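Kindly review both lines to help learners:
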Amino acid sequence: MRPHYTYRHSTQTLQEGLEEYYALNPHITDPRKLPPDFAKILIAHDVSHVILGCDTNMYDELKLLPLTFWTSDFKFDDYIRTRKDPKIKPAIDMMYDDLIKQHGVLWLYGSILLVLPRLLPEIIKIWLQTRTRRKFYPFLEYESLGYQAKSESKAEHSLLEIRQEYDLLFCLD
């Protein structure tokens, strides 16, 4: 059975989707147990999984990065900058280390090679659908989407409503 947050019309809140994501993926580092500054990029990545309806299989992991660049306010240049930032780079490395710890290096690169031929047509389709996009969901400002919201913001809004607001339903076809 696939996670509820991956369903196009999920009525879960972002918080509920994240709870499900963490419950189904106990092998990944839980950023909620890390210092907030260090955890911010990890939580943003996890929020993207939930909002964009991506699971943690290799196909969805490889799809998530370009999808994030094309649908959020976090672009490729931001990614390169974070990879060079000595405070953030270790957090990003932690995500890759989790994959390697779980499966091994050979599996990681082998599965990338196996998935790419099937994924590339979808990546091209997504790029064509997003190249004129003007509304982007907030990647690092995920609190405004309802994550641990302290205000009324979108804490009660469903994933469906967030996806509709940012025109993300096409990602879940």
